[in-house]
Amino acid sequence: MKVIESRAQKDEEKMEIQEIQLKEAKHIAEDADRKYEEVARKLVIIESDLERAEERAELSEGQVRQLEEQLRIMDQTLKALMAAEDKYSQKEDRYEEEIKVLSDKLKEAETRAEFAERSVTKLEKSIDDLEGKILSSVFSLILMVEYQPGKTIFQFKGIHIDTLLCTCTFFLCVLWGFSLWLLNS
Questions:
Q1: Of 55 and 179, which is predicted with more confidence?
Q2: Which of 66-70, 144-148, 172-176 has the lowest mean pLDDT?
Q3: Angle at 57 between CA 56 and CA 61, to 5 degrees
Q4: Most distant pair of Cα atoms in the chain: their distance
Q5: Whole-angstrom Cα distance, residue 65 to residue 100?
Q6: Averaged pLDDT for residues 154-168
Q7: Strand partners, 159
Q8: Is the pLDDT of residue 71 over 90?
Q9: Helix/strand/coil for 147
């Protein structure tokens, strides 16, 4: 009996240990169930988040494609503008050179015009002086000569100038001077 008792006691101890282990196993199983449910809830949430993230990713990819297309168009536009800038820069350089050449020509023309104006002024003064001398000479010649028809007052290489011709010349000179005076007025 002692053997049976000792066995029964050992069995009881084993049973108590197994009951404790069973309680612990149940507790661990309950914890595992709770954790599983938590993980399952988290999985549902994560799957939902994943779906939303995939939708956002698709939208973002669409936007990226649109932005890439806009970037490509802008790049082409930029290249075209750069080419146009080079072209217009070359035109600008040519125009600046033309302006410089034309400015030099203008300065040269202005210098020539000023010189021509000074020359014209000098020539007009010389003409006025000569006209004055001629008129003075004609007046003094007429004043010296007394009118006598047919009398020669000047002879040069077979040309005879008489007093009548001198008088007519005087009146023509007076008329010519008067006409110049009217034109200058």
A1: 55
A2: 144-148
A3: 120
A4: 206
A5: 51
A6: 56
A7: 156
A8: yes
A9: coil
Q: How, if at all, do strands 159-162 and 152-156 pair?
A: antiparallel
Phi-psi region of 157 (alpha: psi -120 to 50; beta: other; left: phi over 0): left
Helix axes 2-144, 163-184, angle to 10 degrees: 160
Contact 147, 167 (CB under 8 A): yes
- pTM value is 0.38
Please give the pLDDT value at position 10: 84
Q: Mention every residue, 6+ apart, whose C-beta is less than 8 A from residue 152.
A: 160, 161, 162
Q: How would you classify residue 149: left for phi > 0, otherwise alpha for psi between -120 and 50, otherwise beta?
A: beta
Query: In angstroms, rounded to a whole number, what is the distance separating the alpha carbons of residues 138 and 144?
Result: 10
**Average pLDDT value for the chain:** 81
Region of residue 18 (left: phi > 0; alpha: psi -120 to 50; beta: else): alpha
